[in-house]
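Hi support team,

I submitted a single chain yesterday and got back a structure, but I'm not sure I'm reading the token output correctly. Could someone confirm the output below corresponds to the sequence I sent? I've pasted both exactly as they appear in my results page.

Thanks,
R.
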Amino acid sequence: MYERIFPTWFMGGFECASHVGRARRRLDLIASTRHDRFVRQDYARLRGLGMRAARDGVRWHLVEARPGRYDFSGVRPMLRAARDEGITVIWDLLHYGLPDGLDPFSAEFVERFRRFAAAFVELAGAEAGAAPFVSPVNEISFFAWSAGDQGNFFPYGRGRGDELKRQLARAAIAACAAARAVDPRTRLVHTDPLIHVAADERRPEDRAAAEGYGRLQFAAWDMIAGRACPELGGSPAYLDVVGVNYYINNQWVYPGGAGTTLEPTHPSYRPLSALLAEAYARYRRPLLLAETGIEGEARGRWLRYVGREARDALRAGVDLQGLCLYPVVNHPGWDDDRHCHNGLWGYPDESGDRSAFEPLARELERQTVFFDRRLAGREVDEPDRFAIGELRLGAAARHMADVSSHRDGDERGAEPAAPRPETCPPPAAAPPLRRPAGPGVAAPAFISDAGRGARFEEDD
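Hi R., thanks for writing in. Yes, this is the structure output for that exact sequence:
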């Protein structure tokens, strides 16, 4: 059994996106969900269900509204609430949102982010007295693709995804070095979606392209570890914890587009446990299921599936450290402000109370028992072993998956270009696990907020 990093297996993630979106309007989902106001109650709710770990965000655009001047007045109450409630928090330093007027393609961006990271780690150590956990740049691959290739949010780039990916990796690496210089105990968590892209069985000539597209998934992690683009300054020491994000539409048929999402009953759908094993075989670093969830009535059933797959990964020897329910509270949609019913708890009332979605709460209690037994070295007896056929992708999910911006191509159905060759040479293959990770190759990292709203539904 591997040494445990987090105090509990389950943790809750608070959606903290703060980018400027398509409508040139800045999002602030910490404020929109009123988590900033009710952070103490929110952390107490986690603790009440046995979760003593969380993911949360530091809103850089508020902290450094003026270059070089830091206002942590909105962050201190969150740090103190976490300390007082006994919650270990992974703090996202850049969840898509930059300070106004800062060009992410500039050298100034990297330097300011480095200094910001150092200032936060110093503050976190002073407030908490413990080693901080930080996630420097959330989802570098998706960030680069959506904001650098597709123009979905600031900086609205077109055809500059590779350039932005390298720049984000450079900034993340600089932040890692700065954080560890302030506090060598700092733990570093790097998140990106875990996906699988399959070739259409009727088009075997697409197999190489689909697999090549899939390998792009690992580019950012490879840069951080110094395996690729060594001029960026990456190091194996910086790839501390690999955070993988997994949602309903993380698997599709190449080249993407309307109607290509792989349902869990499809023959080409790969078990999540196999994707986890593959990522672990590549890096041999602790993994965290850093985001997973679904919208609608199937939230409990989705957790049941993911829980089973996580235990299968543990049985295969994967150093999987935990699972983050993400988001743990409902939030407004990025582009339309609709109420996304995808959390364990809903919007708060004026006193900060949030109603729980009971089917998910019951399944969380059940899964907690299973994982407690498993982590104690006792095999889990699951007589009602989950059948993948219980999950069916409903019509609403198909529509949302079709228009999701993780497709290379826009909502008008344009097909993507073939993936460009990797700018940096790929590293040597990692040694295999003690049992095979399964056939095929896992894939890249371009899952959108829209896709996170997809639902599993029972057929009518």
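A quick pointer for reading it: The two ends are 44 Å apart (CA to CA). Let us know if anything else looks off.

Best,
Support desk
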